[in-house]
Amino acid sequence: MKCYLKYGAIISPLGDSVEEHYSAFFENKSGIKKEEKTGFNAENLFLAKIEGLGNSRYDTLLKQACEKLIENYSSSFLQNPKTGIIVSTTKANLAAIPLDTFESTRKIIDEIIHTFSEPVIISNACISGVLAVNTAADYIQSGKFNQVIIIGIDALSDFIIYGFQSLFALSNEACRPFDKERKGISLGEACGILVMKNTPDEDFNVEVLGGASSNDANHISGPSRTGEGLYRAINKTLERSEVSKEEIDFISAHGTATLYNDEMEAIAFSRLGLCHIPTNSFKGYFGHTLGAAGIIEIIMCMVSMEKNVLFKSIGYSEIGTTETLNIISENRKMEVNTVLKTASGFGGGNAAVLLKCIQ
Amino acid sequence: MKIIGHSYINPRGAFLNGQNVSIATEENYLKKYFSELEIDYPKFYKMDLLSKGSFLGDYLLRDSYKDLLHVENELQFIFANSSSSKETDIRFIESYEIKKNPSPSLFVYTLPNILTGELAIKHKWFGENIFFILTKFDSNFFIDQIEMSFLRGNEYCLCGWVEMKGAPEDECFMFLVAKSEVVNDNLSNKLNEILNTYRNE
Q1: Which of A94, A141, A215 sits opposite B120 (nearest CB)?
Q2: Which of A92, A124, A217 lies nearest to residue B125, judging by beta carbons?
Q3: What domain range is B21 assigned to?
Q4: Under a CB-based contact definition with an 8 Å cutoff, are residues B139 and B192 in contact?
Q5: Do A163 and B102 make contact, defined as CB atoms within 8 angstroms?
Q6: What percent of chain A clears pLDDT 90, i.e. is strictly above it?
């Protein structure tokens, strides 16, 4: 059984439609900007913050994205008993603490999308989004569902900001993935929705060829110095997809812009002989959006395939990893058929998925 | 598929394959089980409740691992709970709201999947891992995930329902499942029976 991805919805500081994102990316516009007095000691931080979400940022963002989804898909499709739903989020509605932070997610989905089945929530740090896509593909291949809605979402909060500050992981300027001068992460917020189906549409389709995850078995919060988990996740993905690495046109890396993460990715790519393949990180546009990252970055991979354009990795000017990667420094027109998307995160998790464009 | 071992830990006792291996009455029951098992693993004391519970549940299962010491890649972790890392989340919020000093050592444990990282490090397992948030233990859900994992090429699944938030109803139920030719239609019922027996002990 084959699995095909379609756009569902996307909301970030760069817009609330795929078209708006395409325009913003085409102009290399970043959603990251200086936000006054947002740090724990009232520092000015660089964040990718969405205007107008108010105090219940997570709930408002999820509602807005679900409303967008129902504009594009019929209720008979969304409410079909063979339609599954997966949510990728690291923290959901933190404002609910000490009550259930995940309750509002189920309630909002039930009220707006009204799916027949209960949402399956994946909370596996920064690889949640890629895991959600791989899990959706499993559901389709096993025949349990014919289509799966995949939502990736996380909102900014003091909790997340202060946490990353306490780890000294935040940059004091907009993040610069893979660059020599990179200083760390810029946090962001977003919601992306993908729809996976077991039948292709007449127009543009992106097939999920295969995916895998692997643990570094090394450290709970630091990336592996050998890139072991990412190396194994990509290897397994290539095996399962029956794709040779020569076929990959573009790699959408995790690229958080911390010294250690980007170095780890470069080592893993080098061990796999992937250094020459055009690579970017979308974090320069969206910031690091945690549970949303995998989903919104896959949406932008699909845009690259649909429009045949590779987007510049914002913030990059000179290679800053010991292994030289082919980081995309200017937008480039190119036929993009096969894309490798990777993610790595706390808990030693790494995940990868291979996508192929079927026009 | 077949279940090759299961363990259960709650504030009253620790169990392996249905047998009671320890009884606790003190508040710090995880520490008691840890010292009784005479494990040399100082990192245990730094862990949050989720990681401590699953570390002990995993250790209890050590005899079941004997035949799979060679496995590096083909063992998947499938874990779930309903409250994520809430206990640590609350303590991290206190660190910045009350103590005015956001604690990095607490922050890293504010993700439930950290426990799978701890287990991977302990065993040098590089396999797949996933953490789900469910409203309650759902044996059918686990069986579906295990079946899909085996279809992807995995040989074993270490599964766990780890609800640890410092409450009397805390529990850590773990089970190790192997791929096998034996068709067992009632595995979901069996899992429910095992858990219900533990809960009623």
Answers
A1: A215
A2: A217
A3: 2-200
A4: yes
A5: yes
A6: 99
Look up the CATH number of the domain holding residue B112. Answer: 3.40.47.10
pLDDT tens column, A247-268? 999 999 999 999 999 999 999 9
Q: Domains in chain A and their CATH numbers? A: 4-197 (3.40.47.10), 205-358 (3.40.47.10)
Task: For residue A345, give every residue at least 6 positions away whose Cβ sits within 8 Å of its Cβ, in sequence order, or none.
Answer: A124, A125, A126, A127, A128, A254
3-state DSSP percent of chain A in helix, strand and coil, to 5 = 35, 25, 40
| CB-based contact A138 B152, cutoff 8 Å | yes
Q: What is the pLDDT of residue B132?
A: 98
Judge whether B55 is closer than 8 Å to chain A, CB to CB.
no
| Structural domain total, chain B | 1
Alpha-carbon span B52 to B65, nearest angstrom? 19
Size of interface A-B (CB pairs under 8 A): 150
Which chain B residue lies closest to A139 (C-alpha atoms)?
Answer: B148
Query: Could you tell me the two tokens for B200?
Result: 């009623």
Per-residue pLDDT tens digits for A19-39: 999 999 999 999 999 999 999
Of A141, A158, A215, Cβ closest to residue B125: A215
Provide, as residue numbers in chain A, all residues whose Cβ is less than 8 Å from the Cβ of B129: 124, 213, 215, 347, 349
Give CA separation, A149 vs A38, A202, B49, B132, in Å: 34, 20, 33, 16
Query: What is the pTM for the complete model shown?
Result: 0.98
- Per-residue model confidence as pLDDT tens digits over A127-143: 999 999 999 999 999 99
Q: Indicate which of B126, B148, B149 best probes the interface with A, i.e. most A CBs within 10 Å of its own CB.
A: B126
**Does the CB of A1 have a partner CB in chain B at under 8 Å?**
no
Label the pairing between strands A147-154 and A33-35.
Answer: unpaired
Degrees to nearest 5, angle at CA A290 with A328 and A1: 80
Chain-centroid distance of CA A321 in Å reads 22
CB B88 within 8 A of CB B109: yes
Look at residue A173 and give its three-state secondary structure.
Answer: coil
- Ranges assigned E (strand) in chain B: 2-9, 13-16, 19-23, 75-81, 129-133, 156-163, 171-178
- Within A168-268, strands assigned E span 187-188, 190-197, 205-215, 250-253
Q: Which candidate from A165, A217, A347 shows the least CB-CB separation from B114?
A: A347
Rounded CA separation B50/B47 (Å): 8
- Rounded distance, CA A274 to CA A277, Å? 6
Query: Is A43 an interface residue toward B (CB < 8 Å)?
Result: no
Considering only CB atoms, B128 lies closest to which of A212, A216, A228, namely A212
Distance between B55 CA and the closest CA of chain A, angstroms: 14
Token look-up 């990736």 returns: A152
